[in-house]
Amino acid sequence: MGTRLLACAAGLLVLVGLSACRHDAAASSGRASEASPDFVARTDAWHAERLEKLRAPDGWLSLVALEWLDPGPNRVGRGSDAEVSYDGLPADHVGTIVVGDDGIRFEPVDGVPVEGVPADGVLHTDADGSPTVLVLGDVRFHVVVRGGRPALRMKDAAAPTRIGFEGIERYPADEAWRIVAEFVPALEGEMVGLDTVIGVRAESEAAGRARFERDGEQVDAVLLASGSGGSYLRFADATNGGETYPVGRYLYVEPSLDGETVILDFNRAYSPPCAFTAYGTCSIPPRSNTFSFDVPAGEQWSGAH
Asked: Would the N or C end of the chain have less CB density within 10 A of its end CB?
């Protein structure tokens, strides 16, 4: 875990340096507009729901571990001999995750009440859709797959990152940053390759492209398909590393009724999970989604202060 965290930290420092340099070189758009009370209220309501999800017992603020699983048995517990060790677990050994050619299964320890264990012990991963979540008091964990490798993701409702969370600073709501863009659908089966903060390559299904002009720059940004049938944008801009998270921000996209345009409301741009925890696996926006101009809308980053 220490090596992984050092690698992530080193990568983040590089991203901070690069984005800060880009921010120094870029001129602020200087645009501002008054937002209607209704627009402000709707933006605030979205933000309140966003905070509620973050603060949930199983929200991103509770993420406390991400450990790669080796082929064969992987002991889980708080003991020093456990391959997956977390101090918040109630016993030195709570069970064993066995990675085999025929799948991944969990073998519980007698006397340790782990909830959610299937009768056959077989665990579904997030690559299967909905992963099997095992619960032990305030702690819950499940298996994710990144770069073809399985890892155990663990969350703790009592995590300091959740208990001590004080909210997120935002830019003032600005209707000028609610942009109607041309939408170009993706080809059937089109995939987008993405780098991640943990150094593995990921692939996501493309939904299409959003095209618009801002500050004299023609933007042709790739949109990724979401599991709900919609799409989202992962973008970087000249505020990254200064006022916003160095890696970039994410944004759910509103489809229009005509099917030929999409709405990019950057007032709802939010920081990715890795802005709150060292154990996120966030993807980095592709080059086509890296804007040279400032996007002074949406969430800011407290780590910049």
From this structure: C
- Collapsing DSSP to helix, strand or coil, 13 comes out as helix
Q: For tokens 């940053």, what's the residue?
A: 177
User: pTM of the predicted model, to two decimals?
Assistant: 0.84
Band of pLDDT at residue 250, cut at 50, 70 and 90: very high
Q: Domain check: are 6 and 86 in the same one?
A: no
- Give the range of the structural domain holding residue 33, as residue numbers without chain letter: 2-56+168-304
My answer on whether 185 and 288 are in the same domain is: yes
Q: Pick the closest to residue 224 from 186, 255, 260, 254 (CA basis).
A: 186
User: Measured at the alpha carbon of residue 68, what is the angle toward residues 65 and 70, in degrees to the nearest 5?
Assistant: 145
Asked if residues 252 and 223 have their Cβ atoms less than 8 Å apart, the reply is no
Tell me which residue of 76, 151, 158 sits closest to 117, measured CA to CA. 76
Closest listed residue to residue 181, CA positions, set 255, 106, 93, 276:
255
Cα dist. 303→70, 118, 250 in Å? 34, 40, 17
